[in-house]
Fold HTH-type transcriptional regulator TtuA.
Amino acid sequence: MFNITLRRMEVLVAVVEEGSFAAAADRFGIAQPSVSAHIMAIEKEIGGQIFVRRRGRKPLLTEIGQSVLQHAREFLAEADDMRADVVKIRGETGQQVVLSCQRSLANFVLRKDLTDFAIARPDIQLVLRIGKQEDVFSEVRDGVADVGCFLGNEDLRGVRAETIGREKLVLIASPNHPLAHRKRVKPQDVERYDFVGPPPSSLFGRGVSKLLANAGISHVKVAAQATEYQFLREFVAAGVGIACSLERSVAADLERGELVKIDFAGDELGFDVRQIASIRRPLSKPASDLMDFLRSRHQIPG
């Protein structure tokens, strides 16, 4: 019996539809080596090549690959039918909406809004799932969540997305850091010092790197990595390096003087607050109500 996951079938179909491994990676918001790993895992499982790989040219399906692609599409269609049935049953058995939310956004930006929604709409059961950006995308795409919320400036493929707000990011450091009390620190001066932050290969890490590059900080030397703010905060406070963080997440530490905001002279740093839903499944009334509520609480000035 073959042990091939739904995710690997989706990646295979994406490579064919997009015409390259790189474009398939963009569709899912993952790195290209991850796409290659998924395809190699399928090939190992079936014992044959799926694609004829030619450098710089569109990958061609082998005869085995064509057969696997046909079954993959049938498999994904059945999975979509199953999701639709689950959504229908869930809608018939009670009013519920599942929100998948990026951790920093849930903890520091949307916490009051989500509490207010739960109080205002006792007829709807709100289920909150908190995780990384990758979790938000996959849970919305796979039908685990009805709505997703995350921080980022990149356009997404394969989901219905809208920007509902904007959050400021700041550069923070230990009070003893050489840049802590300097005025109008230029990007080239920031580049001389180590950073701590999310893994550069993660979606959030890549977003932060691009944000810094656009602000003139192109060369970032990462001294330590952390996926949780508490550890990142400890690294910064101990003087391991500078961090680029959501301003709301560091407000209390800045007020207590345990961390210092660098007076950065470059462009303002910020991420859009985005909410997403599947383009393949109809939006339920509770999900639509939640999206409308969050939109109303985070209106962007025209």
User: Anything to note?
Assistant: The longest helix spans residues 63-93.
